[in-house]
Amino acid sequence: MEPVITPEDVPALAGAPDVIAEANRFLAEQTLYLKAEDRALLRNAFLFAEASHRSQIRQSGEPYISHPLAVAGILTEWKLDTQALAAALLHDVMEDSGVSKLELTEKFGKTVAELVDGLSKIDKLEFESKEEAQAENFRKMLLAMARDLRVMLIKLADRTHNMRTLDSVRPDKQKRIARETLEIYAPVANRIGLNGVYRELDDLSFKYLHPRRYEVLSKALKAARGNRREVVTKILDGIRQKLAGAQIEASVSGREKNLASIHRKMLEKHLSFSEVLDIYGFRVIVKDVPTCYVAMGALHSLFKPIAGKFKDYIAIPKANGYQSLHTTLFGPYGTPIEIQIRTGDMHHIADAGVASHWMYKSGDEGFSDVQQKTHQWLQSLLELQSESGDAVEFLEHIKVDLFPDQVYVFTPKGKILNLPQGATCVDFAYAVHSDIGDRCIAAKINHELAPLRSRLKNGDQVEIVTAAHARPNPSWLTFVTTGKARSHIRHFLRTLRFDESVLLGERLLNQACTTLGQQASISAEMWERYLRENGDKSREEVLADIGLGKRLPVVVAKRLLQLAGQWADEPAPGKKTTAVTIRGTEGMSIQFAHCCNPIPGDPILGVVKKDQGLIIHTHDCPVLTKNRVDSDRLIDVEWDPEVSRLFDVTIRVMSANKRGTLASIAAAIAEAESTISAVSMNGSSETDEQGHNMIQFTLQVSNRSHLAKIMRGIRQLPTVFRLSRMHGPV
């Protein structure tokens, strides 16, 4: 006996017979591919959802249950299983009706409850901004999708129905939802191969973001249909006759491009609608792969191909598994014709996507190459999540990888990798393996050395040169494009900064204890008490906070000494404050102020600044005097006698405007064993009449004595009249 919904089952829907009729059509027609007992479960899920949403009405005035029912109906087009359909019917009960996950598990099983939980928003947490809350919801959903693709399939069906019924929502909300759809959901649909959903979401987003443009283009397209019908019919007949003459069995059809893609083309190429000739595309479906190439040859003899407009997505499939031959031909009256040639299986994947191939099954057995690619992308979401600092950063990485434009490049062994448009050698290195990315030092493109920032082009063969002790460079963040590369680099820098901050924090804490007149003999037990008292996770976390300036070392030292029973209100007499030694190689945790550019030999003072660590200034720096820094944030520092690194310092030279002057100054600097990093020359308004120039050099020096030696050498030149060191930025 078929499961049926009667008005007695849902008395609240007595005034909405259309919903009952739709529920019965769903159970009796749309789910016929399922077993009778499965449809009985769906009947129970519908009744439970209807009872949960009974008091709720959509903004269109319909009972709320009509929405989950429509979502489940969309999923039947992809032949999804019982658990996914039940989760679609129940997808809002946790969020809107307060039903618990435990209750769903008891009634419909653990899998259905997990799917519904993956779709429910995180409303109970508090976020600093709406963007952060939205990003956290996306993160939860995308990670649930990585574990079970059905989460995203249900969400896409949910968003599709919401977009179809967006007319009843106020205009500002329409725009917000449409923009979100365009930025996230449409690209996700494209990424997992749901071409039909992608096109529909793309068009509906365009409709609500640019209603006037949508209306004008719709009318223009409708008019063009009539005007171009004769041309389209002539092309279709010509293609069919040519293929039949070549004894190729094929199904030929014409399709109209969607409005959003026509609009994009008009914007990108600065065309009017009348200049967009290829608003129609043609599709040829044949029995197997060899016939695709034979059919293409036949069509190239019918109409002349346009050079550079052929793409072989059969040999090199798109990242979402899409396969077809694309060619553009000169049709009758000079009209460009876009033709796609594919097999029936390829057509199925192009329409329903890799998603329809039960990607959520456990294990990888039975996966085709294209399914494996999507599966690998889903798994990469989990890797990105583990390295992204927060939800907003995670979403930023995902958005980068969702853009559909791809570049296909080869490894030295001939393996094909697809990367986003604009990807560089560093992106390629991280795509091969995160260890290769972390240790890359150079790259070869088509067997020639190239900078790591070089952008890759289709067909490039790329080889990465690595070194065992190399590590990511912060400057890479200015040019990498893939989410994987960006997240790995940021993760490394965060870890590096944390480690450096812990070391600096320990030095500052030891100095604070000594300043307070006590030895820093804090036992593990005292640390445990301090951590419990302040709710900190570890000793390293406290030390890192001190190093980053988030906590004052003297405050932490006082409390630790109190817990250890060593605290005295006044420092013990005769105790000398120990200064923190600056070596210049501490990394990101210690920075040198640009306002005074200190170098070894200058009297210096440290300032603890929040989120920046320890900033080193000269004693007489005007910025310190002007800002009146809190004395608790001032740290005694001194130069290590064995500083080995070089420091930038800027000098200003007033010289005669004679030939060879610049060369003689450069020679004097080189003789003093220094390197010029930068040089700039300006005519001085005060001395132009006397023929003088003002030249600024940025030099690399080891210490103050080295600078004095350089300046002595320059002063001895007869063409130099005045020389001074500049302390501030140039």
TrEMBL record:
InterPro entries linked: ACT-like_dom_sf, ACT_dom, Beta-grasp_dom_sf, HD/PDEase_dom, HD_domain, NT_sf, RelA/Spo_fam, RelA/SpoT_AH_RIS
Gene3D superfamilies per the UniProt record, alphabetical: 3.10.20.30, 3.30.70.260, Beta Polymerase, domain 2, Hypothetical protein af1432
Record carries keyword Plastid: no
Superkingdom: Bacteria
NCBIfam families cross-referenced by the UniProt entry: spoT_relA (TIGR00691)
Similarity comment: family membership: Belongs to the relA/spoT family.
GO CC aspect terms: plasma membrane
UniProt xrefs under PROSITE patterns: ACT, HD, TGS
UniProt-recorded name of the protein: GTP pyrophosphokinase
HD domain boundaries: 64-163
Boundaries of every TGS domain copy: 405-466
Alphabetically ordered keywords of this record: Kinase, Transferase
Protein's job: In eubacteria ppGpp (guanosine 3'-diphosphate 5'-diphosphate) is a mediator of the stringent response that coordinates a variety of cellular activities in response to changes in nutritional abundance.
GO molecular function: GTP diphosphokinase activity; guanosine-3',5'-bis(diphosphate) 3'-diphosphatase activity; kinase activity
GO BP field: guanosine tetraphosphate metabolic process; nucleobase-containing small molecule interconversion; response to starvation
Annotated source species: Formivibrio citricus
Keyword Transferase: yes
